[in-house]
Amino acid sequence: MSAALRTRLAEIDTSIVELRSRLKTVEDDRRSIQQQLDDITYPILTLPAEITSEIFLQCLPGNESVFHRTLWKPYPAPISLLHICREWRFIAIATPRLWTFLQLNLPDLPDRFLKTERYKEFLSEWLARVCGRPLSLELATLDYFPNPGEPARLLVTHTLHSLASHIRTLHLSIYPDHYPPIPLDFPLLRELLLGYTTDSEEEFNVENSIQTFSAAPQLRDIYMFCKAAPSFFAMPWHQLTVFKGEEVSSRECATVLGLAPSLVQCTFDEPYSTPDTPFTTHMGLKSFELCETGDVLFRFLALPALQTLQIVLYDSDDGDEHVLPFISRSSRSLLKFSAPASSRVPVRCLLDMVLLTYLVLDTPETEYLTELVGLLDRANTWDSLPELQVLELSHCAPYINEPLITALSSRAVAQEGRARLRSFRQTWLSKDRSQRTYRVDPAGYIGIALKKLADDGMEIHLGYSSL
Known about the structure:
flat; single chain; 12 helices; alpha/beta; 18% strand
């Protein structure tokens, strides 16, 4: 009896082995057919992983700025790429460049993310995917009112502590009391954007300077906006080369220039006047941009090493009282000057710009152009703008006439140490379609003269432009 059972058991084992072999063959056939079907239906899966990785990088939203990438939400890349298929998930996780931009905006985060401190695990996973590469981080409480309080402060503190050693570019828009109270080590930080919450009418006061960024040996660029004041922050100001401030007081502007002797490029957008602003001279600044109403800063500044000046001025009752002296103090070394051509920046101020090579004038009126052309004609003013090589007249009425041709021709060749004009551009804006199709008669005097200038090597562009 037992012998018969053993025989039967052996037969069953043999059948199992045969069935498993047949099942393996069928499964192999299925995988082969599925692979062939995938190659037909999903040809992208046949691409090498390196190419797929590059395609993934192009899926990142917001090409114009790293701070327009909304990466926490589940539907944009790169998080969405993790949920397509196993192959894509593997490639996405194995592509560190996908994870070098992180944006955390409080309004986008679910409550459980803060209350359960889910962000700790999330940040750990994100950091692992970066694989040691420098990171760009935006952390903001934008439009989140009232003050989100302790959970948000813990999120900010933990995020900065966890990622500080990896951050190269940092954008913070948070409440002043959310900054960590002690200095953090930012060995890679080079660009810093700081602002407070938007749309708030509250005036922020900081009793003690914020020390968070005092240990940032590579910090070079700072941009302050939304009521963030330079004097609120302890920074390695001496090593900065670029600064931009929006709605900063005139006293704070002077503070920045005084604290940052290595500054090369500086922008002040809509500064406002405060009493007791000291007169400030910066000996190293090369590039300066100013957009203001009135003469908030002109009366307080001297920039003797300036090479590039771009100003946008709005109406003021002061006229040229402070504009002209400022330009006179800062014009001898100018190489590029850009400004709206108006009575606030009169033509005569150009006479002091003896090294100027690039001149851009926006929305000049006909009367202004007539005076400018007279200045440019070397037969009239031999010494004016001797180094000028590029002239751009933007958003003006079409101004193409014999005096202009005469002035351009007088600068078509280098003469006795005077540079030749290499490029002339004139563009205009108009709702009148007839002006959009403005044409120069190629057989007329002006057309022939322009062609000769172009044949001799001057780059000439004339025509309608749109904003």
